[in-house]
């Protein structure tokens, strides 16, 4: 079944949500927005942001969870996609006790406290000794975070969505329900995801009077101060702030700022701009040459943006307006980027719930039809032919996860730490361009060496692992693979207490989050992650249905198509059968057996 989805809004929240939704090939995404990346308009908040990762969510809150869940994605993009405009940057946080009762101090209280929850998330966290703090600062910390060049990152997100088949169109709607009729296929959208930010205040069908702006003013300069910096407050008023950040890819240095609630003024206040620049030079004299003041700053431009605040906090929930299913994801205030993936995961989960309900309704109708077609005469391109082909794949080519190893017995396939780790080993081995026969032999050798036991793998030496890989004929990549397996063991022990099932718990059972976490495992690129989920869906049923992109293409070539929901329905929504089917299609692709279906 194809899911027609409209995402309304092309700020960081809308684009991140569209990006995650577009990773599911059964979703057909249309992004509709008045403003697109490249525009600079006071209504369009995302281009004006700093932006960075400096968590402010209170421990135990949904806000904290969104920020915690976002870090792995930003870290992965920074490491693997330098073209996205994000880079790692040293960060200094300064706290003054006399700021704690101010609006700004309360906003940044989690960021500036001596022992914050995020210390275990960001890189290289440590407290700053008191003798190294600037005058008037009571405590401070430093760590490595990320800084985002919004002028590069937002178009990168657009490109990723387009690569996944999403369509972008400019549009303005008076009522949210009207967006359902603007899907690029010409069909009515099944779901509209509302990511319109501050515009949700005036959008018909939403009219959220809890929305209000927090005006932020910045100065962009060419000077490079070194680390990013933020303080708990200023001496110039409760609604003014002090932060410095240098964007990646020549994006300049952002000097800020302000947090002026209910201020809609889009024109830069030059008196405020002078205070911002003076504060930044006072706290970071290295911004300018010795002896210089504001005149030493090489100004690119002044900017004003309106943060989309919401009384009561961000709105991420399901809704129905004039018969149209809606998922809201708006009201992120000043933390849109640093909570973008966490909020998008929550929104995508709600979209999936809606689509599952729609799918179940269709399945009830389909199950009646499926009972009838068992006695129909087969003809090309009919549903019963597809069902027949699915059964042929399953019965003639289907393979159990960990096929040809001692662990392949269906009775022994469970979610034990050993089985999950064995499936990771299988994926790491098969991701390399090596013959199917050699990968199977190597996997058997790894299992025989008991490397699916985390204690054995963790204690093994690099030389031990190299020998086992060589015995399996895994010669070309054995040294790198031996290193990767060592790093894998270390990560599982240190982060997941020796059991990768805990990774699924961290991901809340959500496949989108689990995929990103799996990519933190060294050697687990896109191909390896897809192979892993082909198999692990049999014991992690919340991740089903999965079929790697190469096998999905093969399924289409042999006349089954690419609708995962219909395939899964034909397999009675059995995750074990889905895993066998995935391995069967993979077998057809690897053995080039597509011709077995040509005359059907």
UniProtKB/TrEMBL annotation:
Pfam families: DAO. The keyword Lipid metabolism does not apply. Its main location: other. Coiled coil: none annotated. Its cofactor is FAD. Keywords: FAD, Flavoprotein, Oxidoreductase, Peroxisome. SUPFAM superfamilies: FAD-linked reductases, C-terminal domain, Nucleotide-binding domain. Signal peptide: none annotated. The keyword Oxidoreductase applies. One of its GO terms (molecular function) is D-amino-acid oxidase activity. Gene3D superfamilies: D-Amino Acid Oxidase, subunit A, domain 2 (3.30.9.10), NAD(P)-binding Rossmann-like Domain (3.40.50.720). Residues 5-345 form the FAD dependent oxidoreductase domain. GO terms for biological process: D-amino acid catabolic process. Its EC number is 1.4.3.3. It is found in: Peroxisome matrix. GO terms for cellular component: peroxisomal matrix. It catalyses: a D-alpha-amino acid + O2 + H2O = a 2-oxocarboxylate + H2O2 + NH4(+). Belongs to the DAMOX/DASOX family. This is D-amino-acid oxidase.
């Amino acid at each position: 079944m194809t899911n027609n989805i409209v995402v309304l809004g092309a700020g960081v929240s809308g684009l991140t949500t569209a990006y995650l939704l577009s990773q599911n090939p059964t979703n057909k995404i249309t992004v509709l927005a008045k403003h697109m990346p490249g525009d600079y308009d006071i209504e369009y908040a995302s281009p004006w942001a700093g932006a960075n990762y400096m968590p402010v969510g209170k421990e135990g809150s949904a806000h904290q969870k969104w920020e915690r869940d976002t870090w792995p994605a930003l870290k992965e993009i920074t490491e693997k996609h330098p073209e996205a405009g994000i880079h790692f940057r040293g960060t200094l946080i300064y706290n003054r006790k006399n700021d704690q009762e101010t609006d700004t101090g309360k906003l940044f209280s989690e960021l500036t406290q001596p022992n914050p929850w995020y210390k275990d998330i960001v890189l290289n966290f440590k407290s700053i000794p008191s003798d190294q703090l600037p005058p008037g600062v009571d405590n401070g910390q430093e760590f490595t975070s990320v800084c985002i060049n919004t002028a590069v990152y937002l178009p990168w997100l657009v490109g990723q969505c387009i690569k996944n088949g999403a369509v972008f169109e400019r549009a303005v709607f008076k009522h949210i329900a009207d967006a359902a009729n603007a899907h690029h296929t010409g069909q009515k959208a099944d779901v509209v995801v509302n990511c319109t930010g501050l515009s949700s205040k005036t959008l018909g069908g939403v009219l959220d009077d809890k929305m209000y702006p927090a005006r932020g003013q910045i100065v962009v300069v060419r000077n490079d101060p070194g680390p990013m910096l933020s303080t708990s407050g200023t001496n110039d008023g409760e609604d003014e702030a002090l932060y410095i950040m240098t964007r990646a890819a020549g994006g300049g240095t952002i000097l800020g700022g302000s947090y002026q609630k209910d201020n809609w003024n889009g024109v830069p206040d030059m008196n405020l701009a002078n205070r911002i620049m003076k504060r930044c030079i006072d706290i970071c004299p290295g911004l300018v040459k010795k002896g210089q003041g504001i005149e030493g700053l090489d100004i690119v431009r002044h900017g004003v943006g309106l943060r989309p605040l919401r009384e009561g906090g961000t709105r991420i929930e399901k809704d129905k307006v004039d018969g149209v299913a809606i998922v809201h994801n708006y009201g992120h205030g000043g933390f849109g980027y640093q909570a973008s993936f966490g909020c998008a995961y929550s929104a995508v989960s709600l979209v999936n719930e809606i689509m599952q309900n729609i799918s179940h309704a269709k399945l009830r109708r389909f199950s009646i039809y499926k009972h009838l077609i068992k006695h129909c005469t087969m003809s090309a391109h009919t549903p019963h032919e597809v069902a027949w082909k699915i059964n042929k794949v399953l019965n003639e080519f289907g393979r159990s996860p960990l096929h040809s190893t001692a662990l392949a017995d269906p009775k022994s396939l469970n979610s034990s730490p050993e089985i999950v780790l064995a499936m990771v080993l299988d994926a790491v081995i098969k991701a390399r361009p090596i013959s199917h026969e050699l990968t199977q032999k190597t996997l058997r050798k790894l299992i025989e060496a008991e490397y699916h036991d985390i204690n054995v793998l963790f204690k093994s030496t690099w030389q031990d692992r190299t020998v086992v890989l060589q015995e399996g004929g895994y010669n070309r990549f054995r040294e790198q693979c031996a290193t990767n397996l060592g790093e894998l063991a270390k990560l599982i022990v240190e982060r997941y207490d020796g059991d990768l099932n805990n990774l699924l718990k961290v991901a809340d059972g959500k496949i989108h989050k689990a995929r990103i976490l799996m990519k933190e495992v060294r050697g687990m690129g896109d191909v390896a992650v897809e192979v892993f989920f082909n198999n692990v869906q049999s014991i992690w049923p919340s991740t089903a249905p999965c079929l790697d992109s190469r096998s999905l293409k093969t399924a289409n070539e042999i006349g089954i198509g690419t609708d995962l929901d219909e395939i899964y329905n034909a397999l009675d929504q059995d995750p074990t059968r889905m895993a066998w089917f995935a391995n069967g299609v993979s077998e057809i692709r690897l053995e080039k057996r597509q011709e077995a279906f040509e005359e059907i």
